[in-house]
TrEMBL record:
Solcar repeat intervals: 1-45, 59-146, 155-217
Pfam families documented for this protein: Mito_carr (PF00153)
Species whose genome carries this gene: Dimorphilus gyrociliatus
One GO cellular component term noted in the UniProt record for this chain: membrane
A single BP term in Gene Ontology: transmembrane transport
Keywords, comma-separated and alphabetical: Membrane, Repeat, Transmembrane, Transmembrane helix, Transport
InterPro entries per record: MCP, MCP_dom_sf, MCP_transmembrane, Mito_Metabolite_Transporter
Membrane-protein topology: Multi-pass membrane protein
Protein name: DgyrCDS2505
Subcellular location: Membrane
Record-stated family: Belongs to the mitochondrial carrier (TC 2.A.29) family.
Length: 217
């Protein structure tokens, strides 16, 4: 990772490290507004549907996971074009510029690959976010409960930080293979892979199991 970072900095300077920043910000604004903004409403709706008035606060663990998966999937459908452009602009190498800016990237992808090109990799992205949301919620809650139960820390910022760090680490272990396949498929030229499954099997056949954990650190 550090060798990669150093080489990018030497060849392109600070700007090279921030490739894809604009579509990255667009992606976060679109993604977070749906994933986080609609979470409480969706959780409340699921609570009323599945539990009536027995648990109006929506504290049921299964409902939390279901609401997280739902809003995560909705966010992907809404923000997928920004993710495609972000990945492609980040993957550009010095001397080979596919897109001069994010607006040109949106136009070129739509023109050469059709509207479907902007939603390329939606399925693995939705799968990734389902895994991320579910594993984050489960592990965060479990770690925090264990810390408080064994009185390792009091309920405060250090406890929440440690729980979030552990949840992020475990989530990355589970989600990294899906993330690698998603990135590889979204960045591939038209016709290189027949689909997401073909992309994953080609990676495994040509590069082995550990190819799915590229960029883990």
């Amino acid at each position: 990772m550090f060798d990669c970072l150093t080489k990018i900095f030497r060849s392109g300077g600070v700007r090279a490290i921030y490739k894809g920043l604009v579509p990255g910000l667009q992606r976060q604004m679109c993604f977070a507004s749906v994933r986080i903004g609609l979470y409480d409403q969706v959780k409340g709706s699921y609570t009323k549907f599945f539990m009536g008035k027995q648990n109006p606060s929506g504290e049921n663990f299964g409902i939390r996971i279901l609401a997280g998966i739902t809003t995560g999937g909705m966010a992907v459908l809404f923000a997928q074009p920004t993710d495609v452009v972000k990945v492609r602009m980040q993957a550009q190498k010095e001397g080979f510029v596919r897109y001069k800016g994010c607006v040109e990237a949106y136009v070129k992808i739509a023109r050469t690959e059709g509207i479907r090109g902007l939603w390329k990799g939606t399925l693995p992205n939705m799968t990734r976010n389902a895994v991320v949301n579910a594993s984050e919620l489960v592990t965060y809650d479990y770690i925090k409960t264990s810390i408080l139960k064994h009185q390792i820390l009091k309920d405060g910022v250090p406890c929440h930080f440690l729980s979030a760090f552990g949840a992020g680490f475990i989530t990355t272990i589970f989600a990294s293979p899906i993330d690698v396949v998603k990135t590889r498929f979204m960045n591939s030229p038209p016709g290189e892979y027949k689909g997401v499954v073909n992309c994953a099997t080609s990676m495994f056949r040509n590069e082995g199991f550990f190819a799915f954990y590229k960029g883990l650190v």
